[in-house]
Write a structure and sequence with these properties.
The protein is mainly beta. The protein has 2 domains: 6-171, Jelly Rolls; 180-358, Jelly Rolls. Helices cover 0% and strands 60% of the residues. The protein is built from no helices and 31 strands. The strands form 6 sheets. It has a 7-stranded antiparallel beta sheet, with no helix packed on it. Strands 16-21-30-23-24-25-26 form a 7-stranded antiparallel beta sheet, with no helix packed on it. Strands 17-18-31-22-27-28-29 form a 7-stranded antiparallel beta sheet, with no helix packed on it. The termini are far apart.
Length: 363
């Protein structure tokens, strides 16, 4: 560190003041002040970085999830700086080198959020704590029990910098493990998702101009799928906010707007469709299925780079809609997707009979 840091909490304003020195949070080893608590399993931390002292342009102040207090520990951090914008920084393996994804060109005060879902870390930023933008998503293998908190490094081992944080909250996962949920792309309005264990039903609300073209905007409920497998669901209902509201099952390479993916969907007015983007940033294509409406069953099966889409009126007799070759990494995201076809309005949908099966024979 060079100099000893400090931290205090003001109960009257519910704000933290954190002072830290240290050459950097970067490379293969870090030096910073950390205010933290244990986090068991999935969850997230939210905070507003209210102020950052400009000792250096690269003073780093933000939220962090870290495997241990070792300098070289694997971690993720969503930060605000005085002169280098917001950044999502991570070290995906202990002792490895850091990488970073730039966020907005802003300074404090600004809101930051970091979410853990299994081995996946997702970083967000917001000007107001209400409308959130995803900065990046990455896989960081960490133990079940980690450390979550507020980090400050001055970028100078001979001088300390102080940052203040308020609206700090550590929250449980929105949906039951191993599921995660978030908006993908520029949806316009924030979506929601919830699971009713007594009926095994998912209820979702999602906005977004479309899942189409070279970039998507939708609400996603997902879990990791390693290797071959399939996802099956009955789309029980879809709100007719637009004829092209899209609700269905999806297998996706990444949680980015332009990611390669496949989706088997039900719509209120355009029938069932097998849609896919075979390469990241490429253009979407579609194959029409039955001209049906909810309730209807849909399925995607992955075997190597081949994804097969099927539909069923009863969940017993299945019809293949199409097959496509879509190269994706070994671990992908399988789940439920919903787009309202509008950036200014939400649409609702419900799903039941949802199963994700890994490396099992396909029916």
């Amino acid at each position: 560190m060079g100099l000893t840091g400090s931290a205090s909490f003001a109960s009257t304003s519910t704000s933290y003041s954190v002072t830290g020195a240290g050459a950097d949070i970067w490379g293969a080893a870090d030096a910073f002040r950390y205010v933290y608590q244990p986090l068991a399993g999935d969850g997230e931390i939210v905070a507003r970085v209210a102020t950052v002292e400009a000792v250096h342009a690269w003073v780093k102040a933000g939220v962090m999830i870290r495997e241990s207090l070792s300098p070289g520990a694997a971690h993720g951090m969503m930060m605000v700086t005085p002169g280098k914008n917001n950044n999502f920084q991570r070290r995906v393996v202990a002792g490895g080198l850091s990488t970073s994804t730039a966020g907005s060109a802003v300074t404090a005060p600004y809101w930051v959020r970091l979410r853990r879902t299994g081995d996946v870390l997702t970083a967000f930023e917001s000007p107001d704590g209400a409308t959130w933008t995803t900065v990046g998503t990455t896989r960081v293998a960490m133990p079940a029990n980690v450390l979550v908190g507020l980090a400050v490094s001055s970028h100078v081992s001979t001088a300390a910098a102080t940052a203040t944080f308020d609206h700090v909250a550590i929250l449980p996962p929105e949906v039951p493990s191993p599921w995660g949920t978030q908006d993908v792309g520029a949806t316009g309005l924030a979506g929601t998702a919830s699971f009713a264990s007594e009926t095994s039903t998912w209820t979702m609300a999602g906005a977004g101009a479309d899942i189409w073209g070279t970039a998507d905007a939708f609400r996603y409920v997902y879990q990791p799928l390693a290797g071959d497998g399939e996802i099956v669901a009955r789309v029980a209902s879809v709100q007719n906010a637009a004829a092209w509201v899209k609700a269905g099952v999806m297998i996706r390479a990444e949680l980015t707007a332009g990611s390669a993916h496949a989706m088997m969907m039900v719509t209120p007015g355009k029938g069932n469709n097998f849609q896919r983007r075979t390469t990241g940033g490429g253009t979407s294509t579609s194959t029409a299925g039955s001209f049906a409406t909810a309730p209807y069953w849909v399925k995607l099966a992955r075997l190597g780079d081949t994804i097969t889409a099927s539909e069923s009126a009863d969940g017993v007799t299945w019809q293949t809609v199409g097959t496509a070759t879509i190269p994706m990494p070994g671990v992908v995201f399988a789940g439920l997707a919903l787009s309202s076809h509008s950036a200014t309005a939400l649409a609702g949908a419900t799903f039941d009979q949802v199963t994700v099966r890994s490396a099992e024979p396909f029916r």
